[in-house]
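Could you join me in thinking about how sequence relates to backbone shape in a protein? To get us started, please write out a protein record for me. Would you write everything just below, so we can both look at the same thing?
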Amino acid sequence: MTEGFEKVPSRQRRRFPGISSRAYEHPADRSALVALRKLSGFDTVFKTLSGLLPERSLRLLFLSDSVRVSDAQFAHLNDMLRDACYILDLEKVPPLYVTQNPRPNAMCIGLDEPIIVLTTGLVELLDEEEMRAVVGHEVGHALSGHSVYRTVLLFLTNLAVKVSWIPLGSVAIYAIVTALREWFRKSELSADRAGLLVGQDIQASMRGLMKLAGGNHLHEMNVDAFLAQAEEYEHSGDLRDSVLKIMNVLPRSHPFTTVRAAELKKWAASRDFQRIMDGHYPKREEDKEASVSDSFRASAAHYANDIKSSKDPLMKLVSDLAGGAGDLGGKVRDRFTGGGRGNAPGGRSEEAENSGGSGGSGADGSGTDGSGESGDGRRQ
C-alpha cells in the first residue's frame, strides 16, 4: 500500500448507520424519488416491465462473459464494494462484474436486484482511492433505487423508436424523455456525493473526474485549473452560447465533467455535507414520512437560487425578467450581442469598452451510468 493510501485506510472512515439516500440526493433528484416512492405499486408495475427490456439477457451476458468480483477475483475491488456498503449501511451487497472494454465505464443496472459493472478501462485508469469513490458512486445509485426508476427512461426511449411512425407520438414521448434526462443528470450529482461519503477524500474524487476528462495524465493536469474551466464555461459568451450549452447537454445522461467536479467541490464545502459527517442526517426509517410537497419546494428553491446566482447570460436574463426588468427588448438584444446595458460615447457599450468577449465550448456527450443507455460515453 502506498504512502497516500496509508493516510486514509478504509476502516478508519466514518460510517453512516441507517442513512437515507435523501441525505445526499440532489434536490431535483430527491423530489422526484420521494414522489415516485409515494406512488402505491409503482415499483411493482415497472418491475413487470423487465420482460420488455433485456435485463435477464444482460445478467446472463455478464455472468458468462465477464469476471465476477469476489475474494478470489479482483479481491481489492471486492473489499472496496463491501466497505462502501458498510459505510452507507446497504445490507445486501450487489454483485460486481469487471468486463473487458477499453472505454472507462461504470454502471448500476437491474430491476429486481441491482448489479454493478466496471470496465477494464476504468479499472486500469484509476488508483485505489479514486476507484473507491467510483464504487461508492455506484452503491449510491443502488441505495437511491436509481436502477429501478431509470428503467422508465429506458422503456420510454425504446417506445419512442417504436411509435415514431405515429404523428406527434414520438414528439410527446421525447418531451418526457428530455425531462427524465434532466432528472438523470441530477441523479449523477447525487451519486457523486455518495462516492464522496464513501471515499471521504475530495482530492481523490477530483482526480477521478479529471482522469475521465483527460485520461491518465495527472502530471499534466491541475485541479484548480480544471475547476476554473467550469467557472469559465458557466459565465463565458453571450446568449447564443447559453442556447448552445442547452442544446449540447439535452441528449446527455451526465452533466459535463468539469461541472460535476465544481458541483461536488461546492457540496463538500457546504453545511449539509458537514452535518452528515457529524452524524446528523435523515434516516431510512423516516423515508415513508418524507413530504412530497416539501421535497418539491426544496427543489424549486434550489433551481431559483441557481438562476439567481448564475453568471450564465441566459440565466441572468431570466433572473432580470423575474425581478421585473424594464427594457425587455434591449436586454434580449444585449444578451445576444454581449453588449452592456448602457452605451459609452461613440456608440460602443460600456461593457465593450471595458472588457473583451470570451466564448464557451461544449464537450462531447460522453458519460452515462445506471441506465445502460447507449450513445453516451463514460458512465461513472
In short: The two ends are 25 Å apart (CA to CA). The chain has a mean pLDDT of 75. The chain has two domains: 12-309, 312-349. Residues 140 and 194 are 5 Å apart (CA to CA).
